[in-house]
UniProtKB/TrEMBL annotation:
Described purpose of this protein according to its UniProt entry: Binds amino acids.
Pfam hit, one: ACT
Superkingdom to which the source organism belongs: Eukaryota
Residue span of region Disordered: 406-429
Keywords of this entry: Repeat
GO molecular function, one term: amino acid binding
Protein name in UniProt: ACT domain-containing protein ACR
Keyword Transmembrane belongs to the record: no
CDD domains hit by this protein: ACT_ACR_2, ACT_ACR_3
Taxonomic path: Eukaryota, Viridiplantae, Streptophyta, Embryophyta, Tracheophyta
ACT domain location: 123-204, 334-412
C-alpha cells in the first residue's frame, strides 16, 4: 500500500511546480507563454526576470494571482519584434519557468541570470552623489590599487549614482580576499564618492559576486539610497515623463496602480522590481503596448493584505515607480568601445570624457577573451546632449577603430494592443486611471488563460 505516498508526491508536484505552456499558433505577432502554479512570494518577478534575462520583449500580458493559485500569460517577442522560432530557446524558457533551473527568491540579492561568468571576482557596490568626472576618479583609484575591472554597470538618476564593479587582482588574476586590502579599497573609494559635499550618502561595500544580479541589485541600491525623493540642482522637484496614478478600490480592498509611459526593453521588469522592493504583492494586472507607448495596470496590496492607507504613501508609490522607470532610461548619446583590454584602460577613456566636458550617465563594462567591450551613455556636464563636434574629437583621440557613436533606432512598432483603456481614462495631471470591475478583470484574465470560453 505505497500508492498513497506516490499519489501525494504527484499532488505536491502538480501543486508546487509551475506548469508552462508555450503557444506559437494562437497569436500572429508574438509567442504566448502561459505559467500556472501555486502562488508563492516573488513568482511574478521571477517569471518576468527570466524572460528579461533572455533579452525578450513582453508586448502584452495578463496577471491573475489570487487565493492560492498563480496564472500569468505573456506575449513575448525577440529583440526585432518577431515570434520565437528557435526550439532551443523555447525549450530553455519552458525549463526555466518550470523550475528546472536553479533559482532563488527574487527578494534576496542572489540571481543566476548573470553571475555565471563572475566566479573568481570581487564585487564592489558603490552609491553616492553623482558629479562630472566621478567615474573617471573611481576607475583611476582602482587602477592605482592594482584592481583590474572585468565587468561593471553604472546607473545615475536624480543626482545619485549606483554602481556594481567586478574586479580581480591585476598581477595574479585572483579575487581580492585580503581583509586589509579590501578595507583600503573601500576607504579610498568612499573618499572619492564623498567628494567635498556628500558627507552622508557615500557607501562602498564588498560583496560576493555569487550574490549579485546586477540590474536587480542596482534597483535595490538606488531605492535604498532614496533616489526617488531627490530634487534637481535648482531646488525644484524633478519632473517625470512617466505617468503614474494610484487609487484605492475600497470595496475590493485593492490599490490600483496605472502606468503610462514610452515603451522600452525591460520596462515591466523595472516596474515589478520596484513594487517588490516596496513589499507590495501584485494580485491582478494587465500589460499592453500601443505603437511606442506602454500601459500597465496592477491591483496590489501590502504583504499583510491591506491596500495603500494614506496620501503620503500614495505619493511615495508614484515617486518610486517613476524613479524605477527613469533609472534605465538615461538621456544622452551612446558610445561603444571595443579594443584590447589593458591596465588603466577605463581610467584613460573616462578621463578623456571628463577632459572634453562629457558626463557618463550610464555604463556597461564587459571583458571577453581579453577584449574590452564597453558602452557609455554620455551627456554634456549641463545634462544636455553633447555637441557632435565634441563627440568627434573624443572619437579621434581614442581611435576611430575603437570608439564609435551608436546610432540608436526607435523601438520596433508593435501591432496595436488593447491597453488598459477599455481600462483607462485620463486623470488629473495626465496620470492613467482605469478602475475596471474586478469581476470583468478576473473573467477576462481567465479567458486569456484558456480557462473559460468567450460567450460572444
Amino acid at each position: 500500500m505505497e500508492w498513497p505516498d506516490e499519489y501525494q508526491k504527484l499532488v505536491n508536484t502538480m501543486m508546487n511546480d509551475p506548469r508552462v505552456v508555450i503557444d506559437n499558433v494562437v497569436c500572429a505577432t508574438a509567442t504566448v507563454v502561459r505559467v500556472n502554479s501555486a502562488r508563492k512570494r516573488g513568482m511574478l518577478l521571477e517569471a518576468v526576470q527570466l524572460l528579461t534575462d533572455l533579452d525578450l520583449t513582453i508586448k502584452k500580458g495578463y496577471i491573475s494571482s489570487d487565493g492560492r493559485w498563480f496564472m500569468d500569460v505573456f506575449h513575448v517577442a525577440d529583440g526585432c519584434g518577431h515570434k520565437l522560432a528557435d526550439p532551443a530557446l523555447l525549450s530553455r524558457i519552458e525549463r526555466s519557468l518550470g523550475g528546472e533551473a536553479a533559482s532563488s527568491s527574487p527578494d534576496d540579492n542572489s540571481y543566476d541570470g548573470d553571475v555565471g561568468g563572475l566566479a573568481g571576482l570581487t564585487a564592489l557596490e558603490l552609491t553616492g552623489t553623482d558629479r562630472p568626472g566621478l567615474l573617471s576618479e573611481v576607475f583611476a583609484v582602482l587602477r592605482d590599487l592594482e584592481c583590474n575591472v572585468v565587468e561593471a554597470k553604472v546607473w545615475t538618476h536624480n543626482g545619485r549614482i549606483a554602481s556594481l564593479i567586478f574586479v580581480k587582482d591585476h598581477d595574479s588574476g585572483s579575487p581580492i580576499a585580503d581583509a586589509h586590502r579590501v578595507h583600503r579599497i573601500e576607504v579610498r573609494l568612499r573618499n572619492v564618492l564623498r567628494g567635498d559635499h556628500d558627507v552622508r550618502g557615500a557607501k562602498t561595500t564588498v560583496v560576493s559576486p555569487s550574490m549579485t544580479h546586477s540590474d536587480r541589485r542596482l534597483h535595490q541600491l538606488m531605492f535604498a539610497d532614496r533616489d526617488y525623493e531627490r530634487v534637481s540642482s535648482n531646488g525644484a522637484s524633478s519632473s517625470s515623463n512617466a505617468l503614474v496614478a494610484v487609487q484605492n478600490w475600497t470595496g475590493r480592498g485593492y490599490s490600483v496602480v496605472s502606468v503610462n509611459c514610452r515603451d522600452r526593453p525591460k520596462l515591466l521588469f523595472d516596474v515589478v522590481c520596484t513594487l517588490t522592493d516596496m513589499e507590495y504583492v501584485v494580485f491582478h494586472g494587465t500589460i499592453g503596448t500601443d505603437a511606442d507607448r506602454a500601459y500597465q495596470e496592477f491591483y496590489i496590496r501590502h504583504m499583510d493584505g491591506s491596500p495603500i492607507s494614506s496620501e503620503a504613501e500614495r505619493q511615495r508609490v508614484i515617486q518610486c515607480l517613476q524613479a524605477g522607470i527613469e533609472r534605465r532610461a538615461s538621456e544622452g548619446l551612446m558610445l561603444e568601445l571595443s579594443m584590447p583590454d589593458r591596465r588603466g584602460l577605463l581610467a584613460d577613456v573616462t578621463r578623456t570624457f571628463r577632459e572634453n566636458s562629457l558626463s557618463v550617465t550610464r555604463a556597461e563594462i564587459t571583458t571577453e577573451a581579453g577584449e574590452a567591450r564597453n558602452e557609455f551613455r554620455v551627456t554634456g556636464t549641463d545634462g544636455q546632449l553633447p555637441d557632435r563636434r565634441v563627440i568627434n574629437a573624443v572619437i579621434e583621440r581614442i581611435g576611430k577603430d575603437h570608439l564609435k557613436l551608436k546610432e540608436e533606432r526607435a523601438p520596433p512598432s508593435h501591432q496595436k494592443a488593447t491597453a488598459p483603456r477599455e481600462e483607462a481614462a485620463e486623470h488629473g495631471g495626465g496620470g492613467v486611471v482605469g478602475l475596471l470591475g474586478l469581476g470583468n478583470l478576473v473573467m477576462r484574465n481567465l479567458y486569456y488563460l484558456g480557462l473559460v470560453r468567450s460567450c460572444s
